[in-house]
Specification:
Layout lengths: L7 H58 L9 H12 L20 E5 L4 E3 L10 E7 L2 E8 L2 H8 L1 H48 L14 H50 L6 H29 L7 E4 H18 L3 E5 L5 E4 L1 H18 L5 E9 L2 E9 L5 H4 L23 H11 L3 E6 L3 E10 L9
Helix pairs in contact: 1-2, 1-4, 4-5, 5-6, 6-10, 7-8, 8-10
Length: about 475
Amino acid sequence: MTLWRPGITGKLFLAIFATCIVLLISMHWAVRLSFERGFIDYIKHGNEQRLTMLGDALGEQYALHGDWRFLRNNERFVFQILRSFEHDNDDDKPGPGMPPHGWRTQFWVVDQRARVLVGPRGPVPRDGTRRAISVNGAEVGAVIASPVERLTRNTDINFDKQQRRASWLIVALSTLLAALATFPLARGLLAPVKRLVDGTHRLAAGDFTARVAASSTDELGRLAQDFNQLASTLEKNQQMRRDFMADISHELRTPLAVLRGELEAIQDGVRQFTPESVASLQAEVGTLTKLVEDLHQLSMSDEGALAYQKSDVDLIPLLEVAAGAFRERFASRGLSLQLSLPDSLRIFGDKDRLMQLFNNLLENSLRYTDSGGGLHISAGRRDRSVSLTFADSAPGVSDEQLAKLFDRFYRAEGSRSRASGGSGLGLAICLNIVQAHNGRIQATHSPSGGVSITVDLPLERDLQRDV
């Protein structure tokens, strides 16, 4: 036999419903207590006023008659006086010792010797309310009423029971209404949570197109928006992973096909095994090696596995060393290399990774700049950052191509041939290096007709990252 375990809807319903029950019962007892105390105080105050009025009236009658003989065994006379106070009908005939309508107590009239003149049989209560009857300054008797609390519990028991039944009936009806209102309220409050649960299940099953409706602006609404953003990111990452694998297979297929073709030609005797053929094979192997190395560098930078040993670095010597290493290669292609640099620009960064960044940018310009043009490197300070600009000459690219330059395996010449371009990973690695230095890199149109790549690196020391 399995125990019933309520879900989150049941738990929320029980929590709200239990709170309503506790509040209803607490209010019931509070109202009952307040009613009983207030009702007794009301009766006590009214009876005290009536006792005072009755004592004054009996004092006047005593002064007229001179003694209490007119009152002995004449309860009707007293009740007529009381009815005159209450403005009741003369047909209202109470029982012996009981006052007319409006009273909730018994009373006695006694003379100066404490002998009972009017009142029910039995001893006069000592704890009752007593009002003296005075004539010409002398006490000639008293009016005594039984305690209000005692008579309220005895004579008004039916009224009290009726009030209790009515109170509990109100509690029962309120409980039923609370249950009817709480259940749809709990379901309505948890409807966004259930949508999030269903969306999470779809997401866990690999359906990255799952989205949930954000129907509010509260915490659940913001959670739904965050869920949709997470699903969108996962969907985008999945598409990028598929594209990445397709690009890798495409990039590896071309040099492997060339290698296979040349080896088969040598094997079939179509081509002689000469130093020239070996050099060609080595060139293709070098291309594959470069591609694999770029993939390795990119994967490590994506995962943060590249070791960044940051310190105070002067960028100017690094730029001059990198430009000096490429100057001869630029000259062999008929390209000029110009530098417009200040004396010093110091930042907090990794010297080796910054050198890799500059080499990749120089290599990119060398591969994609037509002969007769050149590359101009400039640097300077801008607010609280260092700005480096690598602007080359024609050919240029379109606005659409500018937005894709830092995508992996993208080459702007429009051909997938590796004859003129590299692996298409150099600028992607540059992007990761710049982001690791809390900087920003962007590509724009160069004034000389080519592409201008700007790198902004912060001057202040950021948190050092040693991986």
